[in-house]
Amino acid sequence: MADTPILSVLMPVFNSERFVTEAIESILNQTFKDFEFLILNDHSTDKSLEIINDFGKKDSRIKVFQNEKNLGVVESRNKLINLSKGRYIAWIDSDDIALENRFEKEIKFLEEHPEIGMVGAYPIIIDENGNETGKWLFETDLQKLKIELFFHSPFLSSSVMIRKNCLSQNFYDPRFSVSEDFNLYSKISEHYETANIPEFLVKYRINSKGLSKSNTEKMEQLSVQVIKEHAERLGIKLEESTIKNLRKSKSVSRIAFEEIAEIEKSLILLKDLLLKNDRFEKTAVNEVIQKYWFETCRKSTHNGLKILSIFSKSPLFCKKLSLRDNCRLFVRALIKF
């Protein structure tokens, strides 16, 4: 490895003795080899540090750091960024797994697309035992990704690679303790293009003891704040109630009948505001908003066939919707699924 590696791989660790071995091995087995691997133990109380140190003795690319007290994920990530030397930064959570060609694919993509500041990829979802339970397909269109950020974070941390020069001086904002990634990605997108490679390059573990299952209410509250501040920086004013409605069209599994009109109103408002902003491409706006209007009605089909009338009579309705989606909506409404 050169004194100044091309890539810095960063991994904060807290009480991950069950999974950290597999996470570290997935990095060491990458087809791309020119990286430094910085691992920060955030004052774990289990055997995580012992496991990390064992790996550090075997591979010179690994540099182990230790917090004298538990600082949490935001401060730990900022500390790792400050310690890094690479031109690119890649994250891996201590319970996730990078597929062996992840770094090779992402670095090639960034080298070929100098306008892109950050890139992610599709994740395979696994359970605590490593069994595949599903797959996520994030948006890959550059223009649509800008609009998706008004609904959710269309990136997964353990798949993301960032040009270090794209990071602001403050890095992760400590105000967003469980939505720190969403906030950072939103800020990066305001100054650089972002992308997702349409390939599965990481395994994301749904861990019952991890952040993905905890602090749900706080995460939702902070996500609303992330979107509000992101919109304001782009000259777009959105009330919290509007953002909460937009989030429902994406995040909840069932939408009550009385909520549909408010979500529709919020989608119409966002569409109008985005179309007036030169930053957003018209076709992308129309297609993303149409998608979330369809999702709103799809999640309301337990209310019966009246949903079809509401769906088709809305100013958000687009006749270009595929026959498959039209049929799916009809069948779900018919059986009140």
Could you describe the 3D structure shown?
- The chain has 337 residues and is α/β, with parallel strands linked by helices.
- It has two domains: 7-209, Spore Coat Polysaccharide Biosynthesis Protein SpsA, Chain A; 235-334, no CATH class.
- Helices cover 43% and strands 17% of the residues.
- It is built from twelve helices and nine strands.
- The chain has helices at residues 20-28, 48-58, 73-83, 102-112, 142-148, 180-189, 216-233, 240-251, 257-275, 282-298, 306-313, 323-334; strands spanning 7-13, 35-41, 62-66, 88-91, 97-98, 116-126, 132-135, 161-163, 193-205.
- Strands 1, 2, 3, 4, 5, 6, 7, 8 and 9 form a nine-stranded mixed β-sheet that branches.
- The longest helix is centred in the last third of the chain and has 19 residues, at 257-275.
- The radius of gyration is 21 Å and the shape is elongated.
- The N and C termini lie far apart (56 Å).
Summarize the structure.
It is built from twelve helices and nine strands. By secondary structure, the chain is an alpha/beta fold. It has two domains: 7-209, Spore Coat Polysaccharide Biosynthesis Protein SpsA, Chain A; 235-334, no CATH class.
User: Do you know the CATH topology of the largest domain?
Assistant: Spore Coat Polysaccharide Biosynthesis Protein SpsA, Chain A
Helical region count? 12
Largest sheet: 9 strands, mixed
Give helix % range: 40-55%
* Distance N to C terminus: 56 Å
Unreliable segments of 5+ consecutive residues:
none
CATH homology group of the largest domain: Spore Coat Polysaccharide Biosynthesis Protein SpsA, Chain A
Q: From the alpha-carbon coordinates, what is the Rg to the nearest angstrom?
A: 21 Å
Mean pLDDT: 93
Shape assignment: elongated
CATH class of the largest domain: Alpha Beta
Structural class: alpha/beta
CATH architecture of the largest domain, by name, is Alpha-Beta Complex
What is the number of strand segments?
A: 9
